[in-house]
Design brief:
Length: 206
């Protein structure tokens, strides 16, 4: 392979990393697709999932408490994108000889309030947009302590206008495939996270 000019080194490295990522993703799903799992085996694998929480995530004790109550294992890990994802532990009996991580395939970004999300759409917009644009997998945005109509009626404590808020919300949805869930009562956030990840895995295994 010919050497790249110095000014193109950044683009070259970026393209190389993307190629490596694509190969890694293909290998991951190839492992799962090598075998036809029975319904019983699929349920066994789904029940084994471990929820990953980003090391920077804060004020999420209500989620951890719910996971503990339901005996769903969880671990803290530095995630490059999002606040939550999951992995399937190694299971040699089902031909999975190593832990399979899905943090590059699906993630959930959690916002504790409309005020927090407002900051992402205004002061920290460039960083937030880059994070959504560069993530290759399925993206969810979980907004706690709020409903969609709270944006329309201006029921939040920032200077970000309702018109600009809605425009940003729908732009990110269509431009980056960001799927949104409003959770007025945060005690159900754990239900949502587990539901998203468990059904994602079920579909991959069928």
């Amino acid at each position: 392979m010919p050497l790249c000019p110095l000014q193109n080194e950044g683009k070259y490295i970026s393209a190389l990393l993307k190629s490596i990522h694509r190969i890694t993703v293909k290998r991951l799903f190839h492992i799962l697709e090598l075998y036809k799992y029975t319904d019983k085996e699929i349920e066994q694998l789904v029940k084994s999932i471990v929820i990953l929480t980003d090391t920077r995530e804060q004020k999420n004790q209500h989620i951890l408490d719910w996971l503990d109550k339901k005996h769903i294992p969880h671990k803290t890990k530095a995630l490059s994108n999002g606040d939550y994802s999951f992995y399937v532990p190694a299971n040699p009996d089902l031909n999975i000889d190593r832990d399979l991580f899905f943090d590059k395939e699906i993630m959930v970004e959690r916002k504790g309030s409309l005020e927090e999300l407002s900051g992402n759409f205004s002061q920290q917009r460039a960083r937030f947009e880059e994070e959504m644009a560069t993530y290759p997998g399925i993206k969810y945005l979980l907004v706690e302590n709020a409903n969609y109509q709270d944006i329309i009626t201006g029921k939040y404590d920032t200077k970000f206008s309702a018109k600009a808020y809605l425009a940003s919300l729908h732009t990110f949805n269509h431009r980056y495939g960001l799927q949104m869930m409003f959770m007025p009562d945060p005690q159900y956030s754990g239900y949502f996270l587990y539901g998203v990840f468990s059904y994602f895995l079920k579909q991959k295994l069928r």
